[in-house]
Amino acid sequence: MVWVPGGEFVMGSDHHYPEEAPAHQVTVAGFWIDRTPVTNAQFLKFVKATGYRTQAELPVDPRLYPGAHPQRLQPASIVFVPPAGPVGQQDHYRWWQYLPGADWRHPEGSGSSIKGREQHPVVHITHADALAYAHWCGKRLPTEIEWERAAWGGREGCEFAWGDELHPRGIPVANTFQGDFPHHNSRLDGYERTSPVGAYPANGYGLVDMIGNVWEWTDSWFGPHHPQPSGCCATAAASIDPSSQHGEIPRKVVKGGSFLCAPSYCRRYRPAARLAQGIDTSTCHMGFRCIVRPTP
Questions:
Q1: Alpha-carbon gap, residue 59 to 56, rounded angstroms
Q2: Angle CA(130)–CA(210)–CA(180) in degrees, nearest 5?
Q3: Which of 35, 96, 241, 269 has its CA at 20 to 30 Å from residue 197's CA atom?
């Protein structure tokens, strides 16, 4: 793990997506954080030690989703499947599929495996799965404030975690999407999907893959804007948006972007960026890392 010093910094942004606003001064205490996202090899040790089964490996409780088609209740997870050619970007169902058999051991569905990807981030992880792993190893999930502090690496005020250019000198420094999203990834960075942890330079704190590769869970409830001192939107109930794709499911904040973030579609490969994720949802680009707070 790596020590992230406490202090003040400006969290959020007033110049990008509305949910990142308002930019505001925050104070955070120092903490230890995993140097990398949790890998397949690390998660395998947890599973072997505990017999744990992720939510994607279990049938869905029909009582939680009344009226759902029986096929949708089978063990499954959400996988990015690029369309054959250009499509409009308004309908994400053109490239996301809910595939039976997709889980952390089978990232692209039945027939795929993590062989040779032991040092890639584990994916298809729900919030409960991440909490179970953290509890097993005596750690926690970071809050949104802690995660963003760590992602900046001491360089707050730049556009990106590494400076003001997405590709400094034309060289990718994080695993994101290059090309024409969603149908053509040029793989300028060398990777179609996830990459081994540490394939790109560390930030100022020595942390790798805080940006790109996989989205990372935090333990903060999502609100449409950053909470004000009154604490609005800091509860599970307030995080629910029935009009969203997650319906009546509470949502947590995820951070960092992933290998699917592209300039033409999702410019969330920045420390200030944030996204709402239903706590029951797992995808092929969703992972996590843990923290330890010093004992008072």
A1: 8
A2: 105
A3: 96
139 sits in which H/E element: none
Structure tokens given for 98 = 């809910």
What SS3 class is residue 217? strand
Checking phi first, is residue 163 left (phi over 0); if not, alpha (psi -120 to 50) or beta? left
**Model pTM score:** 0.94
pLDDT at 217: 98
Q: Give the residue extent of every domain in the chain.
A: 2-292
Structure tokens at 71: 């096929």
Contact by Cβ (8 Å): 288, 37: yes
pLDDT band at 230 (very low <50, low <70, confident <90, very high): very low
Confidence of residue 59 (pLDDT cuts 50, 70, 90): confident
pLDDT at 166: 94
End-to-end CA distance of the chain: 19
Question: Taking 90 as the threshold, does the pLDDT of residue 201 lie above it?
Answer: yes
User: Who contacts 39 (Cβ-Cβ below 8 Å, separation ≥6)?
Assistant: 118, 119, 120, 121, 122, 197
**Which residues lie below 8 Å from residue 155, measured CB to CB, with a gap of 6+?**
161, 162, 163, 203, 204
- What is the token pair recorded at 61? 């409780």
**In this structure, which topology does domain 2-292 adopt according to CATH?**
paralog of FGE (formylglycine-generating enzyme) (3.90.1580)
Per-residue pLDDT tens over the stretch 111-137: 999 999 999 999 999 999 999 999 999
Output the pLDDT for position 73. Answer: 76
**Cα(214)–Cα(269) distance, integer angstroms:** 10
Q: Which three-class secondary structure state does DSSP give residue 275?
A: strand
